[in-house]
Amino acid sequence: MKDKYLQKNLDQAVPEDIVPQEISPEEMFRQMQGFEKLGFEKLSTENSLPENINLDSNKTYRSGFVALVGRPNVGKSSLLNKLIGQKIAIVSPKVQTTRNKILGVYNFYENDSNRSEGIVGQLVFIDLPGIHKPQDKLGEACLKISQDGAREADLIVFMSEANHSPGKGDQWIIDWLRQNCYDSKYIILLNKVDLAKRKDRLKADRQAYLEMFADLPEKPQLIEISTVTGEGLEELKQSIWDFLPEGPLYFPEDAPTNLSMRFLTAELIREQVLHLTQEEVPHSVAIRIDDYVEKANAKNLTKIFAKILVETESQKGIIIGKNGSLIKEIGSKARIEIETLIKTPVFLELKVKVAPKWRQNERELGRMELS
Fold first, then answer.
1. 177 inside domain
2. What's the mean pLDDT when you consider all of the chain?
3. 63, 247 Cβ separation under 8 angstroms
4. Are residues 221 and 278 in the same domain?
5. Which of 243, 274, 296 is the last residue of a domain?
6. How far is CA 339 from the centre of its chain?
7. Are 325 and 276 a contacting pair, CB within 8 Å?
8. Which among 16, 233, 259, 346 is most buried, taking Cβ atoms within 10 Å?
9. Which domain does 147 fall in, by range?
10. pLDDT for residue 314
């Protein structure tokens, strides 16, 4: 894996005219079709990279880190969930849904239908926040996370949409990658190919993307996929496998992520806020887990005490809802997701706290590991 954080400062600002666009609820429903929640057993409890793990000192493995880079809402988190087979990253039609670096582990086996024959390689996906013009310190932190994540990867998957021609946002990201990750290896990934109606335009768009990467040392491969139908995913996995160099296994075979239960719990609560609120409210919300008590009684009850942070009193009122109706709905739906995650009964207490301008507060961002 490449050295982390090779450059401390951003080299250039994101163009003013690159503004993230939210996708419609209909499009989000389409993306979620066919995705089965498979459970969340055996998740790591540490939010840090573990020591290298070799199952057999006499065996040679292949491994690498792959960064998923692109504009917001092109389907990076949906792709991660689809490949891992579990819901590692939350998904919503709102921009800036992904705020942190999310790691997902995919294992290659000698025989996929008979995994007892042993693991032969490991791919660690790095799902990064969508790159767009930051509006506050939170946005700046998300941008830095994305750029640092791209620098530390062994392979960069630049992801865009097959049903839209490349735009200024794509061009800016590619220019930044060429400037800062020139020697990296690339795959160009066009998602939503099932929505690409005009094949003549898609052919022209393919050529346009390839020309954007034309001056790199190695010509990138271009693959078209659909996270809904699964089209192209086997080709993608095979292409990544062909790239992987010899290396150690960074995670235990049964650990699909390095994220802590506290982090995943907070994300599942935030996901419900994203789905149940509109306009500025989703972007103004953060979740703080104040206490997380496992096996709190003989029934293995897990007690979770969390605060929903907002920036204004009016946002607090919206989150609470009439007679507490909305916060009850958020809590109820989040509790179901959390119980699926941890396989025990859950007591979830939610409170709302006004934290004025928390998105501009570096200390608060630091508590959420966003600075």
1. yes
2. 79
3. yes
4. no
5. 243
6. 21
7. no
8. 259
9. 25-32+57-243
10. 94
Return the number of other C-beta atoms located less than 10 Å from residue 367's C-beta: 13
Among 186, 208, 243, identify where a domain stops: 243
- Is residue 125 in some structural domain? yes
Query: The domain spanning residue 191 has which CATH number?
Result: 3.40.50.300
Residue 57 has a pLDDT of 56
Q: pLDDT higher for 150 or 315?
A: 315
- Residue 12, domain member (yes or no): no
Q: pLDDT grade, residue 324 (50/70/90)?
A: very high
Q: What is the 3-state secondary structure (H, E, C) of the chain?
A: CCCCCCCCCCCCCCCCCCCCCCCCHHHHHHHHCCCCCCCCCCCCCCCCCCCCCCCCCCCCCEEEEEEEEECCCCCHHHHHHHHHCCCCCCCCCCCCCCCCCEEEEEEEECCCCCHHHCEEEEEEEEECCCCCCCCCHHHHHHHHHHHHHHHHCCEEEEEEECCCCCCHHHHHHHHHHHHHCCCCEEEEEEECHHHCCCHHHHHHHHHHHHHHCCCCCCCCEEEECCCCCCCCHHHHHHHHHHHCCECCCCCCCCCCCCCCHHHHHHHHHHHHHHHHCCCCHHHHCEEEEEEEECCCCCCCCEEEEEEEEECCHHHHHHHHCHHHHHHHHHHHHHHHHHHHHHCCCEEEEEEEEECCCHHHCHHHHHHCCCC
- Dihedrals φ, ψ of 221, to 5°? -85, 145
Q: Is the pTM of this model over 0.90?
A: no
Kindly tell me if the per-residue pLDDT of 346 is higher than 90.
yes
Cα 90 to Cα 159: distance, rounded to the nearest angstrom: 18
